[in-house]
Amino acid sequence: MADVPERPGTVGVLVRYFAAARAAAGTSEELLAVAAPADLAAVLAAAVDRHGAGLARVLERCSFLLDEVAVHGRDTAVPDGAAVDVLPPFAGG
Q1: 40-86, pLDDT tens digit by residue?
Q2: 33: number of CA atoms within 13 Å, CB side?
Q3: What total of structural domains would you count in the chain?
Q4: How far is it, in rounded angstroms, from Cα 12 to Cα 33?
């Protein structure tokens, strides 16, 4: 996988897609450059810009991990070098 070119004012984020998100994105993972300061909403917007409306529809139902910790709001800050996991909805509780 190619590295994201370093650009001033951006953060690099590894996004890993699972299940339907992987199918909609057409890849299991990618590196995205997002304008700093970044939050989860900006990372997801960059992914949708790259992959389109099909991914946007899937993301509405997904949950997310930031560096393996559950995210409870799309306004959560995403630091440079972070990993975001896009998870399918889970049944049960």
Answers
A1: 999 999 999 999 999 999 999 999 999 999 999 999 999 999 999 99
A2: 9
A3: 1
A4: 5
Full domain range(s) for residue 50? 26-75
Token duo for residue 80:
């440079």
- Closest CA relative to residue 21, chosen from 91, 92, 84, 93: 84
pLDDT digits (tens, 9 = 90+) for 2-51: 454 456 799 999 999 999 999 999 999 999 999 999 999 999 999 999 99
In a domain, 87, yes or no: no
Quick one: tokens of 13? 């984020």
Query: Helix or strand or coil: residue 18?
Result: coil
Is residue 11 domain-resident?
A: no
- Global model pTM greater than 0.85: yes
Is position 52 within any domain?
yes
